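Example A, followed by Example B.
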Amino acid sequence: MINNKLEKSLSISQAVGLGITIVVGSGLLLLPGLAYQDAGASSIYVWVICALLVIPLLVIFSALGAKYPTAGGVAGFMQNVFSRHISSATEVMLLGTFGLGIPAIALTGSYYVNTLIFVDVQFEIITLTISLLMIFAAFTVNYLGAAISGNIQKYLAITLVLALLLIPILSLVFVSEYKGEGINRISNIEISNIFPLLGMVFFAYTGWEMLSFTIEEYKNPKRDYPISVALSFFIVIILYFLLVISIQLIVPIDDVLLGTAPLSALAQQVFGSMAGNLVGVLSFIIILANLIGAIWAASRLVFSSAREGLLPASIAKLSVNKVPRASLVVTCLFFSTVLILNYFNILKVNDLLRLTGQNFFILYGMAVLAYIKISETKKQKIFGIISLMIVVITMGTFGVELLYPIVLLSFGYFMSKYKSWK
């Protein structure tokens, strides 16, 4: 096992910026439209339920991250609390989850660019080209190192949060006609329309577990990680609810842009096509920032897996300035392969988002199990058990697609067992 350690360079402000840009991306800029199309005036309640579900899970993640500050994130939690075999199973599930979710982020960015350009070229080719270029841009920023990338994320987060706050607020103030479905009363909610969307919308609440893969690079992880999670969650929730409410009130449910660029659809309804194009540019920048942070986290997972012996040791090599460049290369090549599969219609973006969302929810549940085991007080154990019950009940809505994480976990566990037998 290679005993490499990453450089501790992240401050609280950089970590909050990274947290926001990892979480706010395709989830915010694509899912409000998709959920609205499926659930209509009741879709806001899907977002509320997911927000309530994630709060106790983030409390648990913060506690585990402060106690076990490693680049392995939730896999590192599993190794410290349970065993290397359980950790290997978690790593494989994470690799299978990142491998679907992060390419979906790049695809969302390409959809927004497609709303801005009008060329006589097949839509799928443009989408693939733009997505691959975004992967390359994120790779380049991360290749420069954590300190530079952290500053880029911090200043992008400040700019993008201000812009995202202004768009729904100005839309609600200046709109001349409300053409949306509005918001259903709680008594009129159709539960059958909400539960099937929980797995998909929960993707918008993922990212904080990806932030856990950067804990090893914090200057003071025990103090800074919980603060970073709490501050970024508070900011993200405000953004989500403002945008979802404004879309439901203002945008017609049959708007052609809802399924690919709902933020542009909102701006066009209020301010015209020019504003829609400007928002399209802003959305692309947001998603690119999201992609930079996500690839940062994913490359640390690959690095940690190689350092622990699950992947080839050569991937765990660090550059002179302590950047895991080999893992960055492997990570981005894998994501590019998934984008090519999407081009050939083997993997569709809705499938990528849905499978990723449910997998992250299960990963939160695994973190809850670790939290219960290390709990020192009765109150902590009760809190953990209640959180676990919420996870199990919600998992009951996911259906046959639960086979995907089960296969990943089983493969990782038995692969680790095989390595130990050799």
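Example B, a separate protein, is given below in the same form.
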Amino acid sequence: MKVLRHNQPDFDSALNTALAVNSLFDSVIEERTRAVINDVQARGDAAVLALTECFDKIKLTAAELRVSAPSQPATPALRKAIAVANKNIAAFARRGLPKPWTMRNAQGGRVGEKFDPIRRVGIYIPGGTAPLASTALMTITLAKVAGCPEIVACTPSANPDLLYAIKMAGATEIYRVGGAQAIAAMALGTATIPRVLKIFGPGNAYVTAAKKLLYGQVAVDLLAGPSEILVLSDDTADPRFIAADILAQAEHGSGEERVWLVTTSARVLDETPREIERQKSSVPRCELTERVLTKGAVFVLAKNLAQAVEITNRFAPEHLEVMTKNPAAVAKKLTTAGAIFLGPWTPTVVGDYVAGPSHTLPTGGAGAAFPGLTVDQFMRRTSLIEYTPAALKKSLPALEAFANVEGLIAHGASAAIRLAFMMSAEG
């Protein structure tokens, strides 16, 4: 755990060093991932099976890659939880569905947009250290609401509860394959896994690297790598709540997670590490959690709220909790977070599981430009343009001016010939 104080002599350089840590851009990981992609491209199913045996220690045949989901989860409680979460997620997604529209431009031409679901999408569901049933809902449900007819889910896990969640969310195909080889198979296609048009879903550093390297051969949603949380607080915050939320994200346990506290309170800065020590003994995944706390925990004492906000915006955290006197006012100044959780009664876990917005969010600083996953990303936008003879006539001077300056005379002629034909027909 690293502690930085605004009054220490090397504060700026130490902060810059901490902010620069980013598992999304690791040359070693990219080199290894490229080798996986090349293998899948060359050998298809054979490579997927060999890589699955190598990395996941699972020996499968090509026929066993596609799996079926059970009709029921392990417990009625989980079945109810899935129904509750799915209702909120679907309702939120429906509010975000884009609607077609048209307007008249200045020359009288009709222009607009229409939106169609992407025909075949691929969803990656992590399942290495934990069966993330919630991620199935936070991704596949959006594809279902968007109306995508073919929804492919890939996961390395055979956990029946996870497979049930994938089925209930609306997947039409499920394949037991994970890691970079799953992304490569969906992007490039194999004999067993036909290629998809766009890939969605979070994953580890290798999954994220594969999405990045394959962008262009397939569309991708965003860069959603190892989990991050930043808690922004003043002296009103309760260190017990902060500690609990930091531990909740640290227990993902890949070792690449980042858990930050940026506070204006020396009391909060001092008490939160002690509270983490008290609470972590009750965390079952304590060894994995400790790895994250050692490598990825940074606690910053800012001189004032303005500096705390500036540091937070530079970090661009995946999950941002605002525990201040007036969190809504502070949130107006926060412009790069994947999701903002306001006040002491809104832990990140509600966003992880049931609130409604997708928990698939940008990490590694990508939040400065990328939004979290939304339903419109499962749809294609198409422009619509319709001109009448009168609208084309009004546009002709501008069309010919552009065509002349660009030296593309046939461009202008393609409009002029229509008007000439119309005039000759009328004459």
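On Example B: The chain is about 45% helix and 15% strand.
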